[in-house]
Amino acid sequence: MRAYPTDPAARRSALDDAERLRRLPSIDRDLIRLAHEPGFPRWLDQIKATGGCARPVYLSGHTTVRDAATGAVLRHYTTADEPGGRMPVRCRNRRQSRCEPCSRQHAGDTYHLVRSGLQGGKGVSERVQLHPRLFLTLTPPGFGAVHRASDTGPCKPQDPAARCEHGRPLACHQRHDSRAPLVGQPLCPDCYDHTGHVLWHACAGRLWNRFCHAVRRRLATLAGIAQTRLREHLVLSFAKVAEFQRRGAVHFHAVIRVDGPNGPSTPPSAWATAELLEQAVREAADSAHVHSPYSPATGERLIRFGTQLDVHPITTALDSTTAVTDDAVAAYIAKYVSKSVGDAGGVDYRITHYASIHHAPVNAHLRALMATCWRLGALPELASLNLRAWTHTLGYRGHVLTKSRRYSTTYGQLRAARADHQTGTSHLDEEAKETVTESAWRYVGVGHSLAEAELAAGVAHHSGEF
Ligand SMILES: [Zn+2]
Ligand SMILES: [Zn+2]
Ligand SMILES: [Zn+2]
């Protein structure tokens, strides 16, 4: 037995291993336990394969691919030999707030998806570079005065004495930084048309479709041809992304491209220029409208775009005379798909009880919009708008990114190409044969322990996929 050391340094070193381990924070103890497990190196490889996904889904099961004629096994994979008898699959959440690595990969896929529609590649003809293409931003109208960010002048330079019917000032002589909490909040919440705002969101998808029809109709009229014959001259395709602004309203950023009658590999008729397309887009944005379903509580609202419309021709990166290049547009759109209403101060989870609106970590303006959504959602005549299910997105129920079939490749194709690249397999040899696939999978869990999350974050940090 050793004598008790009098020197403090010696005393510290005298702590035995078990004691030191006991004194470590629990996350470090968990890390050490994890690293000593026999399956640890394989687990780390699996986590690397998910790109360090923050919330992987664990599956257990097997897949066997057989030659249909001979019954010979061509490929067999089972999780029986994996650590814990399971394998992690990435969550593929597009939201940065949910999973940083997966949102980064999703943004990267979006970039390629949008870019291939502008420059060609990934199965899209490079001819598309020569076709008329526009980048546009469509906005909702105003639903009431809100504080705005500005570095040039005061927020609302109206007469300081002017008041609304509720006695609140119409002016704001402050200058707000873009991150100021007041930006996007109404000057008077009682003047603000929450119902109009929510109904606009709920009808925005229909309005967009109406707009696309109107662009086709205007193009035909401008060219002096019958609408029914437009398809013999050109096909329109688009990709659009929805972005939530600080005032809680959705903006659409979209790419519109004109191809020939047989798609990207054929030129449109010579009269279909970018200038003519721009004129058609401007007129269509101005005229397109839909009506909200009638309700005694809300009336029937006219739903149309606001006057703030941006239209820019897109050029290839080589032509540097304009800032709107195809690369810039692809990067711009990709940036928005990883955002959610949560990034604009809302929540990115579904609301299932009215009471939870009061506890949601949002500002007073978004809370009022959510409450309006919930309240209108109870009206049977508005049932088709499904407002309660979309309370968290303030009534907007479209996808973040939508595109027409012909625009470019798909997320699925991009993922399949990446999977083949990663596993080094090509299924070409299998495609030649007729095969039978037999598989059985079940869900066994989701997410990481604290220590696993720490390691996955390290993997994500070093993979830098995008
Ligand atoms: Zn993930
Ligand atoms: Zn202000
Ligand atoms: Zn007022």
Characterization of the model:
35% of the residues lie in helices and 15% in strands. It has 13 helices and 11 strands. α3 (26-36) crosses α13, α5 (100-119) packs antiparallel against α8 (326-337) and α6 crosses α7. Bound molecules: zinc ion (ZN) (3 copies). One zinc ion (ZN) binds at residues 164-166, 168, 188, 190-191.
Helix content: 25-40%
Tell me the radius of gyration.
Answer: 28 Å
Query: Residue ranges: pLDDT <50 for 5 or more in a row?
Result: none
Bound molecules: zinc ion
Main sheet specs: 5 strands, antiparallel
Strand content: 15-25%
- Helix-strand string: HHHHEEEHEHEEHEEEHHHEHHEH
For the biggest β-sheet, the strand order reads: 9-4-6-5-10
Number of helices: 13
Distance N to C terminus: 59 Å
Count of beta strands: 11
Tell me, briefly, the overall form: globular
